Amino acid sequence: MNREKSKKIIDALSDQKELFGDELFAGKIIKEKPDRRFPDGFEKAASLEKLYAMINDCQKCVLGSTRNQFVFGKGNPDADVMVIGEGPGADEDLQGEPFVGRAGQLLTDILKAINFSREEVYIANIVKCRPPGNRTPLAPEMEACIPYLHKQISLIKPKFILCLGLTAAQGLLKKKESLTNLRGKSYDFLNTKIMVTYHPAALLRNPGWKRGCWEDVQLFRKMYDDLKNKKK
Ligand code: SF4
After folding, report:
1. Are 159 and 152 contacting, i.e. CB atoms less than 8 angstroms apart?
2. 128 CB under 6 A from ligand 1?
3. Confidence of residue 146 (pLDDT cuts 50, 70, 90)
4. Can you name the CATH fold of 42-231?
5. Is the pLDDT confidence value at 232 over 80?
6. Does ligand 1 have an atom closer than 6 angstroms to the CB of 130?
7. Using CA atoms, how far apart are residues 193 and 162, in angstroms rounded to an integer?
């Protein structure tokens, strides 16, 4: 590097230091590369709290650098029912909780209509950081994040999972089928029964799909009741 270039850089750094002080000065200039590895030992976490503590600053995929908040999941840690969506949206990214916007309110109503409260289920997403502009998570992002969801499922041990939307269904079931084909059936997965329906955000955009969702969730409730009654 020639002397003139070095001087320019030193001048620019001095200007920044004067303007922003030491903290921003260091943060802007010496930007560390994010650590793209899985946090050590997260697979062995003995509780949801421990898992959260291990993974909440994850930078395994690029979504870690664009998120505002990491959205772990929320609900009853002993839930019989897990509800799994695609990923955080703008409201969720700001509040750090899944399904808190308009789609979240609709999810609450859907659950209520089949006699579940939000508090008795556990709600999570396929990816825990918001894809910019609410785009669909990319395959490598889903692959990077899904081991965390699998770990949550193994800790909560739900008996039933309701998947919301094609991305959640394909991400979990690893089936490249259409939503129409995936709906209306149950699938065995990690000792649970999974059913698939529309994502509430899709229902807000296409109210005509609500009838199909209603049929799906009634079937889900029936599966839940049948299995519960069998065990009595
Ligand atoms: S989306 Fe998942 S894998 Fe990617 S940074 Fe966030 S927590 Fe990590």
Report:
1. no
2. yes
3. very high
4. Uracil-DNA Glycosylase, subunit E (3.40.470)
5. no
6. no
7. 9
* pLDDT tens readout for residues 28-87: 444 567 888 898 899 999 999 999 999 999 999 999 999 999 999 999 999 999 999 999
Cβ atoms of 197 and 183 closer than 8 Å: yes
- Pocket-testing residue among 72, 128, 148, 150, ligand 1, by greatest number of atoms within 8 A of Cβ: 128
124 C-beta closer than 6 A to ligand 1: no
Pocket test for ligand 1, best of 66, 126, 145, 146 (most atoms within 8 A of CB): 145
So where are the chain's domains?
Answer: 42-231
**Rounded percentage of the chain residues whose pLDDT exceeds 70:** 87
pTM for this structure?
0.85
| 37 Cβ contact list (under 8 Å, min separation 6) | 60
CA distance 202 to 208: 10
With a 6 Å cutoff on the Cβ, whether 217 touches ligand 1 is: no
145 C-beta closer than 6 A to ligand 1 = yes
Query: For the residues 199-222, what does the mean pLDDT come to?
Result: 97
